[in-house]
Amino acid sequence: MRVPQWRVDDHHVKLSAAWLIDAAGMKKGYGLGHVGLSSKHTLALINRGGATTTELITFAAHIRQRVRDHWGVTLHPEPVLLGFQQSWTELLDSL
User: Fold this and answer.
1) pTM for this structure?
2) How many whole angstroms separate alpha carbon 30 and alpha carbon 60?
3) Does pLDDT of 79 surpass 90?
4) Tell me: the pLDDT tens digits for 25-68?
5) How many domains does the chain have?
6) CATH value at residue 19
7) Does residue 80 register a pLDDT over 70?
8) How far is the C-alpha of 11 from the C-alpha of 30, rounded, in Å?
9) Domain housing 71
10) Residue 14, strand partner residues
11) CA separation (Å) from 8 to 11, 12, 14, 36?
């Protein structure tokens, strides 16, 4: 299977994180325990009720690792976390 990509410049290409997640076997609605992927959008993580921040970050790390294992691509979250000493990347790498 070929990964869809778009050339940004002479040295970079853009990949679809949603496509990579889906093609790594984690479809819309996929989840573990209290957290999961939205049934409407692969990039939206949802609290199914009673999830902790740790569960959400652990789930994000799981998604990231599965994509890395399947495609050799490391996803880098775009949201900024407020009230944390660590960045998303540091939090995900620590799990």
Assistant:
1) 0.79
2) 12
3) no
4) 999 999 999 999 999 999 989 999 999 988 998 999 999 999 99
5) 1
6) 3.90.78.10
7) no
8) 34
9) 5-93
10) 6
11) 8, 5, 6, 31
Tokens of 38: 């939205």
Tokens for 24? Answer: 């790594």
Token pair for 8:
């940004």
H or E segment to which residue 60 belongs? helix 53-71
**DSSP state at residue 79:** P
For residue 23, with 0-12 CB atoms within 10 Å meaning exposed, 13-18 middle and 19 or more buried, which class applies? Answer: middle
CA angle 81, 35, 79 (to 5 degrees): 20
pLDDT of amino acid 92: 79
Residue 81 has pLDDT above 70, yes or no: no
Tell me, what's the pLDDT at 11?
87
Using DSSP bridges, classify how beta strands 35-37 and 45-47 pair: parallel, antiparallel or unpaired. antiparallel
CA 20 to chain centroid: 9
Looking at residue 82, its pLDDT comes to 64
